[in-house]
Amino acid sequence: GMAMIWVLGVLLGLCVIVIAGGMMLRAGGGLSRFEGDVDPQGWESFGNPDGPSPEHRAVEISIKSMRPEIEGLSHGGMMQFARKFMADVSRGKEFDCEFVPVEANGVPCEWVLAPGADPDRRVLYLHGGAFFAGSPEGHRTATSHFSRAIKASVLSVDYRLIPENQRREGIEDCKTAYRWILGNGPQGEGAPEHLFVGGDSAGGNLSLVISNWTRDEGLRKPDAVVALSPLTDSTYSAPSLDSNMETDTMLGPLFGKLAKVPRFLLAWLYLYENRIKPNNPQVSPLMADLSDLPPTLVQVSESEMLYDDARRFVNKARAAGSPVRLQSWPGLVHVWQWYCSEVPEADDAWDKVSEFIESVERQERSPTSG
Fold first, then answer.
1. What amino acid positions are annotated as catalytic residues?
2. How many other C-beta atoms can be found within 10 angstroms of the C-beta atom of residue 6?
3. Would you call 12 helix, strand, or coil by DSSP?
4. Angle between helices 140-150 and 344-365 (to 10 degrees)
5. Which DSSP string do the residues of 125-175 spell out, in sequence order?
6. How far apart are CA 198 and CA 43, in angstroms?
7. What is the largest distance, in Å, between two alpha-carbon atoms of the chain?
8. What is the Cα Rg of the chain in Å?
């Protein structure tokens, strides 16, 4: 009997350690106060009274049609599916851009140059794909549109992906590429006159991480940052991960199963897979000090699982005095900006990106700034 009690005691002790440890891995310092709507000065919502456009509905229907294919997949199968899906987004499309492969201090990248792109206006672009999928080629719809929209030379980074590489190595590649673009353009050496950082989803996460890092390193900060539907919190504590699971056409089926796992166990799983604590600001930019950031625009759909990742980041950054803004659209799929030239809401979002960059540059030029 005593042995049994002892075994139960040990098991109970282990449970307590696992749960407490998981909670410590997720501790992030009172984020609930940053939940809810952003103050009206820093937030615009662009809904269509009739709901999303017919073109957007068609995209949603095509994503929903893949559901039966996804349902039975293993973790590895899901990864292969996502990699293929993202590689195919730009396949067979016509682009009026030049794509020039380049090595940024050993990191493979490509310059994306729309006609008239200014070599001294540069964008470091970090693609999405949940850190395990995506590529510069697959993201050409977005990068070519970005280049055209703001007449800039876009450097799209082919950072190392998990699980073949460690999560830190992917982050390292983005930092290396940032240091490189500070001294190199599409026509050779030289500092950029204007420098922006942008990315979607996982790349939105990396963009915000890089932005925080430039400030901490004392490097030249980007003039502006654009994060599309970014993951900001790798502890997965945002309420919308659960509340928007049903309405998120893209991420719901892919990550719905994960959401059923207790969060403290997910934290251990994350640490095991990524060799980095989920609350480390290198993977959860929301956990960083968010003061003294460059002008930053975050775009998100109000019906996606990452809605609160966006809102909480913007609320916390604004509370710290940083010029960070949120733009949201009801009812759209995660990173609808990919579907530019197909879906009016995507073109609208890119127009808003251009307007944001223009307003930042107007402020830079005005004698009252600084």
1. 201, 304, 334
2. 10
3. helix
4. 40
5. EE--STTTS--TTTTHHHHHHHHHHHTEEEEEE-PPPTTTS-HHHHHHHHH
6. 19
7. 82
8. 21
Contact 333, 53 (CB under 8 A): no
Structure tokens at 313: 């980041």
Paired with 189 in beta bridges are 184
- In sequence order, the β-bridge partners of residue 297 are 226, 325
Give the type of residue at 311: R
Q: Quick check: 122 and 181 in contact, CB under 8 A?
A: yes
Structure tokens at 102: 């380049």
What is the model's pTM?
Answer: 0.92
User: Please, what is the Cα angle at 278 between 274 and 284, to 5 degrees?
Assistant: 110
Per-residue model confidence as pLDDT tens digits over 246-302: 887 888 777 777 777 777 788 888 788 888 988 899 999 999 999 999 999 999 999
The DSSP secondary-structure symbol of 283 reads T
284 close to 278: Cβ distance less than 8 angstroms: yes
Tokens representing residue 249 in the block: 């056409």
Q: Token match 């067979």: residue?
A: 92
Tell me if the bond preceding 295 is cis, omega within 30° of 0: no
Decide: residue 345, CB within 10 A, 0-12 exposed, 13-18 middle, 19+ buried.
Answer: buried
Beta pairing class for 118-126 and 184-185: unpaired
